[in-house]
Amino acid sequence: MTVKQLPLPELVAACAESGVSRVGLWREPVQAYGVEAAAGLVRDAGLTVTTLCRGGFLTAIDPAARAAALSDNRRAVEEAATLGTDTLVLVCGGLPAGSRDLHGARERIADALAELGPYAEDHGVRLAIEPLHPMYAADRCVVSTLAQALDLAERLPAHQVGVTVDTYHVWWDDQAPAQIARAGATGRIHAFQLADWTTPLPEGVLNGRGQLGDGAIDMREWLGHVDAAGYTGPIEVELFNDGLWARDGREVLAETAARFVTHVG
Amino acid sequence: MTVKQLPLPELVAACAESGVSRVGLWREPVQAYGVEAAAGLVRDAGLTVTTLCRGGFLTAIDPAARAAALSDNRRAVEEAATLGTDTLVLVCGGLPAGSRDLHGARERIADALAELGPYAEDHGVRLAIEPLHPMYAADRCVVSTLAQALDLAERLPAHQVGVTVDTYHVWWDDQAPAQIARAGATGRIHAFQLADWTTPLPEGVLNGRGQLGDGAIDMREWLGHVDAAGYTGPIEVELFNDGLWARDGREVLAETAARFVTHVG
C-alpha cells in the first residue's frame, strides 16, 4: 500500500531493485490481477508474501450484510492461502449506521471470529486483528486498543487469531507495551507494521501516515517492545500517504528502504 | 466556545433568552473584554461561571518557555478566581518540537502540577486535567486517557487537581467508565463536558465536534456514568464546529439547549 501507484509487476521488479525480499499485499490489486496469477508472479520473483490486507468489517447487524461479510472473509482466507502467506490482517469495522453501541459491535466481531478462526486454520492461515487508532472507532474499526484486540483474540487459539501491532495506531497508548508483552507471551503477535505520526492530519484522517523518521514515533522503541515479546516475524512499512502516492513509486520504495535502515535497522 | 461568534455581552443576553443560567468561559474573549469587566457583566446578569478554559501547555523543555507557561497558568488561576469559578480546565500540551518522548512530557506536566496545585488552592480554584482524544497526542495533549489523567491528578490532593470528562475525548475507551468511577470515588470529577462524534473529521481535526444527537455518542450513557460516580456538578456543552460558528449564535445556543433537553435532560 505504501507504493500503491505501482502495478503488481512493477512492484515485484522494484522490490528486487531495492533489495526487498518480502512484501505485504492488499486484496484489491491482487483480485484485479488475478489471485493465482499474482501468486505466480510473486513466487517466480523469489518474493515472500508477509501478510494479506485485509479481511474484517464484521460489525453489520443486518443478516444479509453479515452473511456477505463472512463469505467475503472466507474468500480472503482462501486468497491468503493461495498467495502463500499465513497471515490475514483484519480491520474489524465501525458502527453500523445509526448505532451507538460499541460493545455490541465488538461482540458481533467475536461471534464472527468464532466462525472464521477454524476456517482460517483449515487453510493454514492466522487472523490478525488490527486495533485502529481511536479516531477510526466510529466509521472504520471499533477495536481501538491492543487490549481490546487481545480480549477478542484470546477467545480462540493463538494459531487461529492474534493481533497486528501497528505503530501508527498504538503509539499514544501507555498501556500498549504491556499489551505487546501479553500478546507475545501467548504467541499472538501475528504482524508488526510501521508508520510515523505526522500532523496536521488531513481531512478524513486516512491518508496522512508519515514516512519513517518524519514524525512523533520512536520506531526503535516499538521494535524493542515486540523484540522483547519474542516477535521474530517480518516488519512491514505501511504508509497511506497522498504525498507519497503522487511520487514515482520506485523512488518511494527506495526511500522507504533507506529510512528503514536509518530508523529501524 | 460553542457560540464563540457571540461577543460576551451578546452571549450573556442570549443565555438569559435561552434559559441558560451557567456558562463556561474561555480566556481569550475574557481577556479581550477585561477580566474584571467580564466578571461584573456575568455576575450582573445572574449567570454563574462553570469553568474557565483553559490553562495547561506544560510540556516545554526549554527553561524560559517552561517559566512562561507556569506564569501564564498562575494568571489563569487568578482569572478563574476573579470570574468566580472554582474550576480551571487544563489542556496539558503536546510533544515539544523534535521530541518523541511521551513519558517525559507527562512527567514534566506532573512537575508543573506540583507547583500549580497549591497556588490554585490558595485562590479557591481546582485544576481539571482534560485528557484529549489520542489524535491530539503529538501536537496538543500527551494526556490521552482518563487513566493517564488520574495517574497525574492523584499525586496531589483532589481539591487541588482532578479531571475533566469530555465525551468527545473518551467515548471510544472501554476503560473510561471504570476510570470515571475511580475519579468519582476520590472526588476528582471537576468538570463534565459533552460533544458528539461525527465523521468525516475535518483537516486538522479541531473543529468537527458534532452537535448533540448528530453522532456516535450516547450522551445519556455517559451522564449515567458520571451520575453513578456521584457527580452533581454542571454539564457543559462544548462544540468546536466551523458549521455552527458560521450560523447566528443565538440560534445555535437555542438549538443546543433544545438538543440538550432531547439527548440529555
Automatic annotation (TrEMBL), chains A, B:
GO terms for molecular function: isomerase activity. Residues 13-255 form the Xylose isomerase-like TIM barrel domain. This is Sugar phosphate isomerase/epimerase. Pfam families: AP_endonuc_2 (PF01261). InterPro entries: IolE/XylAMocC-like, Xyl_isomerase-like_sf, Xyl_isomerase-like_TIM-brl. Keywords: Isomerase. The keyword Oxidoreductase does not apply. It comes from Streptomyces dangxiongensis. The keyword Transmembrane helix does not apply. SUPFAM superfamilies: Xylose isomerase-like (SSF51658).
